[in-house]
């Protein structure tokens, strides 16, 4: 697995984490205020920021505002491209495993 594949897998792991995926789904239709998300998912603003930090660093989640007026949003287009890449990777991986089975 290349470094790029590992990075993609790490992003996928974050996106499919059961706690994070619920938060992303909530933001899918429109940006949401930190306070709303904190209350809905019963987590502190700091915990919310920590959970989303990796996806923020990789531009899958946007963060605007400051202090008590922070708002989060999802880059749905970038997320869709990631899912397409993951599907393609899965097909290549399955094909390689099948070829390996024939060769052995």
- The radius of gyration is 17 Å
Number of domains: 1
Fold-level CATH name: Arc Repressor Mutant, subunit A
CATH top level label: Mainly Alpha
In the CATH classification, which architecture applies? Answer: Orthogonal Bundle
Rough outline: elongated
State the total count of DSSP E strands. 3
Secondary-structure map:
Elements: H1 3-16, H2 18-27, E1 32-33, H3 34-40, H4 45-57, E2 61-64, E3 71-74, H5 76-103
Antiparallel strand pairs: 1-3, 2-3
Provide a descriptive summary of the structure in words.
This protein is mostly helical. It has one domain (3-103): Arc Repressor Mutant, subunit A, CATH 1.10.10. Helices cover 69% and strands 10% of the residues. It has a 3-stranded antiparallel β-sheet with strand order 1-3-2. The protein starts with a helix and ends with a helix. The model is unreliable at 91-96 (pLDDT under 50).
């Amino acid at each position: 697995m290349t470094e790029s594949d590992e990075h993609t897998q790490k992003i996928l792991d974050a996106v499919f984490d059961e706690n994070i995926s619920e938060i992303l789904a909530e933001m899918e239709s429109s940006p949401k205020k930190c306070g709303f998300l904190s209350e809905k998912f019963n987590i502190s603003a700091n915990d919310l920021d920590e959970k989303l930090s990796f996806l923020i660093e990789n531009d899958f989640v946007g963060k605007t505002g400051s202090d008590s007026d922070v708002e989060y949003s999802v880059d749905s287009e970038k997320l869709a491209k990631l899912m397409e890449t993951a599907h393609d990777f899965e097909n290549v991986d399955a094909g390689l495993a099948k070829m390996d089975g024939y060769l052995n």
